[in-house]
Design a protein that fits this description.
- By secondary structure, this protein is of the alpha/beta class.
- It folds into 2 domains: 128 residues, NAD(P)-binding Rossmann-like Domain (Rossmann fold, 3-Layer(aba) Sandwich), CATH 3.40.50; 191 residues, NAD(P)-binding Rossmann-like Domain (Rossmann fold, 3-Layer(aba) Sandwich).
- It contains 12 helices and 13 strands.
- The strands form 2 sheets. Strands 8-7-6-9-10-11-12 form a 7-stranded parallel β-sheet, with helices on both faces. The chain has a 6-stranded mixed β-sheet with strand order 2-1-3-4-5-13.
- The longest helix is centred in the C-terminal third of the chain and has 20 residues.
- The protein is globular.
- The mean pLDDT is 95.
- Its EC number is 1.1.1.28.
- InterPro entries: D-isomer_2_OHA_DH_cat_dom, D-isomer_DH_CS, D-isomer_DH_CS1, D-isomer_DH_NAD-bd, D-LDH-like, NAD(P)-bd_dom_sf.
- Keywords: NAD, Oxidoreductase.
- Belongs to the D-isomer specific 2-hydroxyacid dehydrogenase family.
- It comes from Streptomyces bullii.
Length: 331
């Protein structure tokens, strides 16, 4: 059987092809699955997708009509998949429920330190042989307060690093994580966390309940000199409201590895095209904002885990087995 994989990055291609070679043929495409590319999948019982592929109702209908019966998503998030429609069509859907949490947590800290110490601006200056320090002053994080929204595996890893910096720890989640509490974390209401934290990092999944978790009202409760980091899902932040706060001179730094309208932008080269997204265009002009293209997970270890789990998901499907990764079971 030939598996068709959409949205495969250049670094990912040899890993995924090597992992599948002993089991099934696989054809890797760098294009993302959407309404225009769905016909390519015709005749493929199993396809693999990335988080920026579109698996809405129309695309799923097209896939089902072409004979696709299984979608193996190469990510933990699955907000891009209409699970109800997939179930109605009798399609199996699986994801990767776990991979290295350190990849994302460490990158979240990379963003935090980069905006705190003005690393991007400093690097740009020195490339022009401008060695002034004006405007590059950061601040010690030791003794300050880190607020962690979401304390699962990634949030816990982020918390351990914050503890190593000697920071006070505040957490918010639907359930307390004992490991974080052992590090000295105090769980508080979201409003209190936002009001008291010097650094806020988001590590919660995107669901209807968490859409715009940081809306205009929430953003206004945060300190004027707070550092905000989002390496989870773009839809957790109302970006238009964030731009309003940035225009008012608030926030010491903002590090975003995700963006709520990133589909059709991230993972692609748009450098020779006009920017149609006014909000993103404005966002990247702020000197205290750093935007990266959803790369927090992108380490050899994490991608290796993702690929291995994807292979297992496909093998489970062909064998009629069900694991914790299955979102919509085989009928």
């Amino acid at each position: 059987m030939e598996i068709l994989a959409f949205g495969v990055q250049a670094d990912e291609k040899p890993l995924i092809e090597h992992a599948f070679q002993a089991h099934h043929d696989i054809r890797s495409l760098d294009v993302f699955l959407n309404g225009d590319t769905a016909p390519i999948a015709a005749g493929h019982e199993v396809i693999s997708t990335s988080v920026n592929c579109d698996l809405g109702p129309g695309v799923l209908e097209a896939l089902a009509a072409g004979g696709t019966r299984m979608v193996a998503q190469r990510s933990t998030g699955f907000n891009n998949i209409d699970l109800a429609v997939a179930e109605r069509l009798g399609m199996t859907v699986a994801r990767v429920s776990y991979y290295s949490p350190y990849a994302v947590a460490e990158f979240a800290w990379t963003l935090a330190m980069a905006v705190n110490r003005r690393v991007v601006r400093a690097s740009t200056r020195t490339r022009d042989f401008d060695f002034r320090l004006d405007g590059l002053m950061g601040r010690d994080l030791h003794g300050r307060t880190a607020g962690v929204l979401g304390t699962g595996k990634i949030g816990e890893a982020f918390t351990r690093i914050a503890h190593g910096f000697g920071m006070k720890l505040l957490g918010w989640d639907i359930a307390d994580n004992p490991a974080c509490m052992e590090l000295g974390m105090t769980y508080v209401p979201k409003e209190q966390l936002l009001a008291e934290s010097d650094l806020v990092s988001l590590h919660v999944p995107l669901m209807p309940e968490t859409w715009h978790l940081l809306d205009a009202a929430a953003l206004r409760t945060m300190k004027d000199d707070v550092i905000l980091v989002n390496s989870s899902r773009g839809g957790l932040i109302d970006t238009a409201a964030l731009v309003v706060e940035l225009r008012a001179g608030r926030f010491a730094g903002v590090g975003l590895d995700v963006y709520e309208a990133e589909a059709g932008l991230f993972f692609l080269d748009k450098s020779l095209q006009a920017v149609e997204d006014d909000t993103l265009a404005r966002l990247v002009t702020f000197p205290n904002v750093l935007v990266t293209s959803h790369q927090a997970y992108y380490t050899a270890e994490a991608v290796g885990h993702i690929v291995d789990a994807t292979v297992r998901n496909v093998l489970d499907y062909t064998a009629g087995r069900r694991s914790e990764n299955v979102l919509v079971p085989r009928i």
